[in-house]
Amino acid sequence: MAEGVRYLWAPALVVLVAGCGQQPAQPAAAGHGSADATATVPAAPPPVAWTGLAALDPCTLLGPQDRSAAGVSVLGKPKQIAGARACDWTVPGSFGVTVTISETDGLADLEVAKKTATKTTVGAHPALKVADKKAADGTCAVLLGVGDAASVQIDVSNSGFSDTPLACRRAGTVAGLVEPKLP
Fold it and tell me: What's the Cα-to-Cα distance from 25 to each of 22, 30, 68, rounded to whole Å?
């Protein structure tokens, strides 16, 4: 029986890899009615939001018009942050923006100090605005929930680490530009 289970998983993996973020077709008659067919149920693709985020390149979330609207005059540079895909735009002498996609952590999973977070909504997505007003360090983040198990984080740091309200305005602007592109 274990041999049969391994055999059923191999085609499922091929479908998932070949799909690259697309919903695979429903299996029509693969093992129709057998007990082995139910063993493939866990091989179903992740939720739509997760799959949609897997297909996104964080550096494409701010196109030329978006960058102009956000005051970003440079191209983004891809990077990894704690295993998550991210893109960093640094405007010399002014500020930096980083957009990070987490395919495994929803808003509830993120460790955020409650005293620094404010619940909000950006477009159709629940969000948290995170800024430590007491620290006044010129940083602010907007975390967008994408389903229950994924999120996109927009971090802004001002040069000189001052003017937290400006950093929050910038983070809000970028979040508003990124949000419509999310699943």
Answer: 9, 12, 40
Angle at 162 between CA 60 and CA 117, to 5 degrees: 65
For 115, the token pair is: 């005293």
CA gap 76, 74 in Å, rounded: 7
Token couple for 135: 């620290």
Mean pLDDT of the chain: 79
The residue with greater pLDDT, 179 or 34, is 179
Q: Decide: 155 and 98 in contact? Cβ < 8 Å.
A: yes
The token pair that represents 59 in the structure block: 């550096």
Burial profile 19-29: b = 16 or more Cβ within 10 angstroms, e = fewer:
eebeeeeebee
Produce one character per residue of 93-121: b if its CB has 16 or more CB atoms within 10 Å, e if not.
Answer: eebbbbbbbbbebbbeebeeeeebbeeee
